[in-house]
Design goal:
- Helix 1 packs antiparallel against helix 2.
- By secondary structure, the chain is mainly alpha-helical.
- Helices cover about 65% and strands about 0% of the residues.
- The termini are far apart.
């Protein structure tokens, strides 16, 4: 059985951008707008988690063992 791959950061950011474009449509029904908004927030949360994970990994990989602010 093959594991389902989670979309990467770039894919999620592209999805957020597409969601924003769809939300700008003045003809979009309110109910669909709320659903898109909710999905966009979930995607942004996933992006933030991925960025945090990568940031922690970079901090661990510092050659001299010191951490610097980004």
């Amino acid at each position: 059985m093959e594991e389902e791959k989670k979309p990467g950061l770039e894919q999620n950011l592209a999805l957020v951008e597409e969601t924003l474009k769809r939300l700008e449509d003045p003809e979009l029904p309110l109910e669909q707008a709320f659903a898109l908004y909710e999905e966009g927030i979930k995607t942004l949360k996933s992006c933030n988690e991925e960025i945090d994970r990568v940031e922690k990994k970079v901090l661990l990989l510092k050659e001299n063992g010191e951490t610097d602010e980004f």
